[in-house]
Amino acid sequence: MGCSSGRSSARPVALFLTRRALPLVLLEALLAIAWSSGFVGIRYSVDQAPVLVVVFWRCLLVGLLLLPWSIAELRRAGARTLARHVGIGLLAMAGYLAGVAKGIEHGVPAGLAALIADLLPLGVALLSLLLLQRGQPLLGWLGLALGLGGMMIVTQGALALGGAPLWAYALPFAGMLSFALATLWQQRSASAAPLGLCANLCLQCLVCVPVFGLWAASETTLVPPLRAGFMISLAWTAVLSTLGGYGLYWLCLSRSNPIRTASVLYLSPPITMLWAWAMFGEPLAWSMAVGMVVTLVGVWLVARAGAR
């Protein structure tokens, strides 16, 4: 899944990594850091512009940046391959982000919405069992349970039920399931004329541009505020959250299995709190360290179960 346009000398640096350039565990560590940066980026972005405007410009920016290195491969790809990756992109980006954002908009507390979104490893495991009849060994289920327990220990101080209508709590859950479906679909497509990593991410970003553009235009203006804060938030979410987060997620998935890759995202809440401490001065608690250790043990057990 390396980036390729027919000229090996012109490759973006991030995605940047050939499939075997770094050990998988190091790629997973980078994934946990990059993915957690998205929550910090959104928090910073809401003070600069409506979230949908930031997401629209971030998808457009990443899509256009990757297009020169992707256009040759996209032209060569068949219609079925393109349609498949369009569907994956709509589920992984538009479906996931829309569910979480709309849930928060309708009153679901942000901490609870993030916790529901981070149930992705369980969502992938359950959908894999229901749709593909692929069960997990007991060790895998134990790891998933420990990872969830550690994550809840970390986030317990930030959780609240809020006063949202009951149906609103289903929105972030639906977003999580949308991403879980995309994960399984992406992994299965690896054996059916897959796109390279750059072309895959480029296409997924570009197909989300009209979705977020129409949605944002119906609520506000798409004209970006020309100030330094917005540019910083756009660069942060485009480079770290999209290129880094999604790029590393698909890269790890190409070298591992869906449940192990998704389980790495259990680590995003404690790492997000470290980001918030470093950037916004938010206090840390010992419970975060305890939860981090429990989560790490859970992720390790999931990895062991996958290796077996």
TrEMBL record:
Major localization listed first in the record, in broad terms? membrane
Keyword annotations for this protein, in alphabetical order, are: Membrane, Transmembrane, Transmembrane helix
- This protein's record includes keyword Metal-binding: no
Classification via InterPro entries: AA-Vitamin_Transporters, EamA_dom, EmrE-like
Record-linked Pfam families? EamA (PF00892)
For this protein, the parts annotated as crossing the membrane are 21-42, 48-70, 82-104, 110-132, 139-160, 166-185, 197-218, 230-252, 259-278, 284-303
Q: What is this protein called?
A: EamA domain-containing protein
Q: Name one GO cellular component term.
A: membrane
- Write out the annotated subcellular location: Membrane
Q: Which family does it belong to?
A: Belongs to the EamA transporter family.
Q: How does it sit in the membrane?
A: Multi-pass membrane protein
Q: Where is the EamA domain?
A: 26-155, 167-303
